Amino acid sequence: MEKFYSNITNGMIQQVNKTKARNLYNQGKTIYFQSSNLKFDCIWQSPMAASKDGYSFQGYTFDQVCNNYEVYNCDKERGKYIHFYVAVEK
């Protein structure tokens, strides 16, 4: 998929599918979640960063994080689905 520069992370970002995002999350990488109708650098809602090794998500599976994100952040206006992003390593 296409890579682009993000002001939020000050680096290159790439959108990935759910399967790849799950694998990277299980490896301990940081995954960014954003509602499907919003751009990554949207001023209305920032993307949520999640990592299995991070303090906030210790003990949560990838599917639990996805379900919690969808309940609180996905609707008709922002988008009904989640887009997953990862930082591109140099």
How does this structure look, described?
The longest helix has 12 residues, at about 60-75. The chain has one domain. It is globular and about 30 Å long. The chain has helices spanning about 20-25, 60-75; strands spanning about 5, 10-15, 30-35, 50, 80-85. Strands 1-2-5-3-4 form a five-stranded antiparallel sheet. With about 90 residues, the protein is α+β, with helices and mostly antiparallel strands. Helices cover about 25% and strands about 25% of the residues.
Residue ranges: pLDDT <50 for 5 or more in a row?
Answer: none
> Main sheet: which strands, in order across?
1-2-5-3-4
Provide the β-strand percentage band: 25-35%
Question: How far apart lie the N and C ends?
Answer: 16 Å
**SSE arrangement, N to C:** EEHEEHE
How many separate structural domains?
1
Class from secondary-structure proportions = alpha+beta
Major sheet:
5 strands, antiparallel
| Averaged pLDDT | 92
The shape, in one word, is globular
Rg, Cα atoms, Å = 12 Å
DSSP strand tally:
5
Helix content: 10-25%
Q: How many helices in DSSP terms?
A: 2
Core attributes:
single chain, 90 residues, alpha+beta, 5-stranded antiparallel sheet, 2 helices, 27% strand
What topology emerges from the helices and strands here?
Blueprint: E1 3-6, E2 11-16, H1 18-26, E3 31-35, E4 48-50, H2 62-73, E5 82-87
